């Protein structure tokens, strides 16, 4: 299948592109390189384009005979979304609306969308099933939920077959640890701890130690980036028969910030300074996934569920490319 990968130069998108190639599909990366990198897109065709550019999208669909779209091109920082909500509504919502309009015009029905556990806000029940109530507590989660709803309404018209995949915490590096995280600025826990272990930052700050959790720090469900991508492939293959698919993707096991720090200490064999600071706005205390639905319907099975192995692959990536892709 010819698959347009919007945001295919980014962390998850580049892993997806590599996996699509390996599976015999023809990915075409569409990216404005505002966050992503050209280097990881080695084999795939590349279009330098913006999601707000309706005409460019239409031309790309036509030129490459696109049959399905996967969409990873979103802003992802909770804290930034709290400080600048409009930026999130504009990129994550409005630009996705433009993309869907262009798909509708071109008659492309297949769509796989990167959603997030942030749609659940502070859930009442964990692990979280797909049916948990959705009340986001930050603009990032709200912008993703708005897209999910838009896709739902559009699919009811018969003009869209979509899968919304709600990621818990994507981590690790794919393709033999050669496709890893290289965000600027970096805001995610595992790469930041690794930077501290590599001596690239003075310390790792724990955002909040007074949560109602076993050690007072936030609990998250870390999932290897390749396990996320394999669920996309499975969902893509079912779009013809199931026009509306929504799955929570995680391993189901929660790790506190302190446990993740300990895992990096064990894997790296290094010690570093840990500083306890106040809570980060917009952070729910516990997010863990019940992914029974993805396992049962898609037959999805994560290959690397162990935190230690996820951290190992991230450590390999960061130590082999200390300056990221620009190195
Ligand atoms: N976190 C932290 N220090 C950091 C970065 C993150 O304590 O320097 C915490 C953050 O508050 C959250 C968890 O680590 O509880 C995971 O944060 P991340 O930004 O990686 O992912 P999120 O869960 O926000 O998607």
Task: Give the overall shape, derived from the CA principal axes.
Answer: globular
Which structural class should the secondary elements be placed in? Answer: alpha/beta
At the third CATH level, what is the topology name of the largest domain? Rossmann fold
pLDDT averaged over residues: 97
Enzyme class: isomerase
Pathway: Carbohydrate metabolism; galactose metabolism
Subunit structure: Homodimer.
EC number: 5.1.3.2
Task: Please tell me about this protein's structure.
The protein has 327 residues and is α/β, with parallel strands linked by helices. It has 2 domains: 2-171 and 224-249, NAD(P)-binding Rossmann-like Domain (Rossmann fold, 3-Layer(aba) Sandwich), CATH 3.40.50; 189-220 and 252-326, UDP-galactose 4-epimerase, domain 1. The chain has helices at residues 11-22, 54-63, 78-83, 85-106, 139-156, 189-197, 225-238, 257-268, 292-298, 307-320; strands spanning 2-6, 26-31, 45-48, 68-71, 110-116, 161-167, 169-171, 203-207, 219-220, 222-224, 244-249, 255-256, 273-277, 286-287. Strands 3-2-1-4-5-6-11 form a 7-stranded parallel beta sheet, sandwiched between helices. The model has no long low-confidence stretch (mean pLDDT 97). The structure holds uridine-5'-diphosphate (UDP). Uridine-5'-diphosphate binds at residues 78, 169, 187-189, 192, 204-207, 218, 220, 257, 280, 283. GO terms for molecular function: UDP-glucose 4-epimerase activity. Homodimer. Its EC number is 5.1.3.2.
């Amino acid at each position: 299948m010819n698959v347009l990968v919007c945001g295919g130069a980014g962390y998850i998108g580049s892993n997806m592109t590599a996996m699509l190639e390996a599976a015999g599909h023809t990915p075409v990366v569409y990216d404005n390189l505002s966050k992503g990198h050209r280097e990881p897109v080695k084999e795939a065709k590349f279009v330098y384009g913006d999601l707000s550019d309706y005409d460019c999208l239409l031309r790309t669909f036509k030129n490459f005979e696109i049959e399905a779209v996967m969409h990873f091109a979103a802003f992802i920082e909770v804290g930034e979304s709290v400080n600048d909500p409009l930026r999130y509504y504009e990129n994550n919502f409005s630009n996705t609306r433009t993309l869907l309009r262009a798909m509708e015009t071109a008659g492309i029905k297949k769509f796989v969308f990167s959603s997030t556990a942030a749609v659940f806000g502070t859930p009442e029940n964990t692990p979280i099933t797909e049916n948990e109530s959705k009340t986001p507590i930050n603009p990032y989660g709200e912008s993703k939920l708005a897209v999910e709803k838009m896709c739902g309404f559009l699919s009811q018209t018969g003009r869209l077959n979509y899968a919304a995949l709600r990621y818990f915490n994507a981590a690790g590096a794919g393709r033999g640890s050669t496709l890893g995280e290289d965000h600027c600025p970096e805001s995610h826990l595992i790469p930041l701890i690794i930077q501290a272990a590599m001596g690239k930052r003075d310390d790792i700050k724990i955002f909040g130690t007074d949560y109602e959790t076993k050690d007072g720090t936030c609990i998250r469900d870390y999932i290897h980036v390749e396990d996320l991508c394999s669920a996309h492939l499975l969902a893509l293959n079912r779009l013809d028969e199931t026009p509306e698919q929504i799955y929570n993707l995680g391993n189901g096991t929660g790790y506190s910030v302190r446990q993740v720090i300990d895992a990096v200490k064990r894997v790296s064999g290094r010690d570093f300074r840990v500083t306890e600071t106040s809570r980060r706005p917009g952070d729910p205390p516990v997010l863990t996934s019940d992914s029974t639905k993805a396992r049962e319907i898609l037959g999805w099975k994560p290959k690397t569920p162990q935190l230690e192995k996820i951290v190992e692959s991230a450590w390999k990536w960061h130590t082999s490319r200390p300056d990221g892709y620009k190195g």
